[in-house]
Amino acid sequence: MSLIVQKFGGSSVGSAELIKNVARRIAEYRKNGDQIVVVVSAMKGVTDNLIKLARDVVGTPAEREMDMLLSTGEQTTIALTAMALHALGWEAVSLTGSQAGIFTDGVHTKAKIRDISPKKIHHYLDQDKVVIVAGFQGQSEDGQITTLGRGGSDLTAIALAAALNADLCQIYTDVDGVYTADPRIVPNATKLSEISYDEMLELASLGAKVMQSRSVEFAKKFNVVFEVRSSLTQTTGTLIKKESSNMENVVIRGVSLDKNQAKITLVNVPDQPGVAARIFQTLSDAAINVDMIVQNISHDSSPPATDLSFTIDQPDLPKALNLIEAHREKMGFRDIISNEEIGKLSIVGVGMRSHSGVAARMFQILAEQEINIDMISTSEIKISVVINLEKSEEAMKAVHRAFLEESTPIS
Ligand code: ADP
Ligand code: ASP
Ligand code: MG
Questions:
Q1: Cα(352)–Cα(383) distance, rounded to whole angstroms?
Q2: Which domains, ranges and CATH numbers included, belong to the chain?
Q3: What residue's CA is closest to ligand 1, atom 1?
């Protein structure tokens, strides 16, 4: 007998019909006598609608109440999924995150899982029930409902698979695996049979929303092997696991595009020790994540000054601008410019460690498309560039074509 964790995302539970489909899929496994723990997301669009509703009531809603509101999305689907299983003649019980024993810190809307105490889950599994857990939510130490950040049901599933020491963890979604690029943007993208944690983590953090990046980080830490697959077909999906020795043979595993970034430029910042520290500390204190940073010394200014550009997540832009404006005197810059019309295009692959010339080739491809590169950042296994938003999808296709469709080797 195996213990299987199955997660169904919003698009897989988007209607009554789809929920019945999910119940049938769970039943197929249950028939083999396996123990099944199911994690479900809110129905497609529900979380977005709840966020919009809150914003229509008040511009900046209290974060505790936001969690109270957003957690209802998943609470709806756990109950409906349990009912659908009952209708098929299977015993099933739904549990909220808190009932399932998922404990988090108290940071509302982006809480981190601290501990899982799966006593209740085991109790129901022992009674031969399918246990259906609400994704994306938990409980803080003082009993408040918390949520785990957008896409957080992935994290619930991976964390439960680790805590329960599951034999199998399956992430069901509306594509049949992880592709070399988002198949909705790049029709020629192909499905990967496997990908390493590090590559998946980079792709996810750089815009491939097929998996929440924190969930991949968690899987890597606890060595949870999982499969991303379709809830509508029977095809095998993509295995996400520890890097194996043959993975470096492939130079580029995938391409991703993040259109949800914004760039801030501070013009004429005094070129003195401590200035950058003051700016980025202020943002960090407000939990605003800064990604790429570029500083340019301007040679003709006196006293010496620099232009400082950096990227952040677009939703944080108003908050960041207000903060910087409020600290204008302390930071000493002359002007502040922001730009939301940017896209961050990245190529990812563990094979980059052992192959040179990858960056040069990427820049060449962009040059051929007459696409200007605004910012560049690299790590051992990825290269990212900031480019104009309008041209970003075209650039993504060109880069994908050159690295993943044409087989000219890079040496
Ligand atoms: P769910 O509702 O199941 O959580 P998501 O919408 O969060 O599903 O993630 C699935 C979507 O991720 C796909 O529909 C696809 O458009 C997108 N996606 C982005 N990049 C990739 C990729 N590299 N491979 C597969 N899907 C991707
Ligand atoms: N419902 C949440 C969201 O839309 C969590 C999830 O779907 O994973 O972000
Ligand atoms: Mg998702």
A1: 9
A2: 3-174 (3.40.1160.10), 266-338 (3.30.70.260), 343-405 (3.30.2130.10)
A3: 9
